[in-house]
Specification:
Number of helices: 14
Helix content: 40-55%
CATH topology of the largest domain: Rossmann fold
Order of helices and strands: EEEHEHEEEHEHHEHHEEHEEHHHEHHH
Shape: globular
Strand order of the largest sheet: 5-4-3-8-9
Strand content: 15-25%
Radius of gyration: 20 Å
Distance between the termini: 25 Å
Structural class: alpha/beta
Number of domains: 2
């Protein structure tokens, strides 16, 4: 079988069962497809693997960092398939191809293209198509329900923010934004820019965060909490439209920013149903795979 991907073409024999995942979205997607990788890179937080995936990955060999995977460890595993990302692994792609057929995704946040690619490469196309239909049914249901609830206030303009130990961030792109865009939310005009986003180091920049609603994530860390408290106590923060309207929603940074796969997308959608007080149910025929 010949698979086209972001960096070329790979030939795969049979249905690979020794899969190596070199980024978080690929690990999420493998689990969704019922695959336990023989090797995977460690998670950014909640090491070694994100909690929402951990029970499905009991015997996976750790392969170092997503940005610097252990090539010797990968070769030792004798994989049938390696899944990589162009912005992480472009330089080592020729070496990976020497170890095993390697498929590469261009956009690490494009979870639907990743699911389609991995399902085809592993001989699980039927399951992959079912998972996509399930997602599309849920996304359509959510869009219909929130549009009915918010009426003329839909589409709601939302900002995605994060606090770190020494700064705050506005996300212009990324996983959460791609999902919110698909669901029909609007982006503040000031946030419709290229790139992942912007770092803010001065509280004078707080007005740039403004939107009708804010989704906010941060790590559970004392230094981060101090930054958050200092910024959110500021009068400029208190004057933001979303703050005045009580429309600031803390969310999980793992599923909203780091997971980047079909399972994380569905968990993010679960949060949105809950935040907006919407019924989170579909007929069984539309969700069963």
């Amino acid at each position: 079988m010949t698979i086209k991907h972001a960096l070329g073409v790979s030939r795969i024999s049979g249905s690979p069962d020794r899969v190596v995942s070199l980024y978080q979205g690929a690990t999420d997607t493998a689990v969704a497809l019922g695959i336990e990788p023989v090797g995977a890179v460690e998670s950014w937080t909640e090491k070694p693997f994100y909690r929402y995936l951990r029970s499905a990955l009991p015997d996976v060999r750790m392969l170092g960092l997503e940005t610097q995977p252990d090539l010797e460890g990968i070769a030792w595993l004798n994989p049938d398939l390696i899944v990589a990302a162009s912005n992480r692994h472009l330089a080592i792609y020729p070496l990976l191809q020497q170890i095993a057929p390697t498929v590469v995704i261009n956009d690490v946040y494009d979870f639907k293209t990743l699911l389609t690619l991995m399902a085809k490469a592993t001989g699980k196309e039927q399951l992959g198509q079912c998972l996509l239909r399930h997602w599309q049914a849920r996304a359509g249901d959510f869009h219909s329900r929130i549009r009915g609830k918010l009426g003329e206030a839909w589409p709601q303009e939302v900002a995605i923010l994060s606090f770190r130990a020494d700064h705050a961030r506005i996300y212009y792109g990324g996983f959460a934004r791609s999902v919110l865009d698909e669901l029909g939310f609007s982006t503040p005009s000031a946030h419709r820019r290229e790139g992942w986003g912007i770092k803010l180091t001065s509280q004078e920049s707080i007005p740039a965060m403004d939107a009708e609603a804010i989704f906010l994530f941060m790590q559970d860390d004392p230094a981060v909490r101090r930054t958050f408290n200092r910024w959110t106590d500021h009068p400029l923060w208190q004057n933001l439209e979303a703050v005045r309207a009580g429309e600031v929603y803390p969310v999980n940074p793992v599923t909203w920013n780091m997971g980047a796969g079909i399972l994380a997308a569905n968990l993010m959608l679960d949060d949105l149903y809950k935040h907006y007080g919407l019924a989170n149910t579909l007929p069984e025929a539309e969700v069963a795979c």
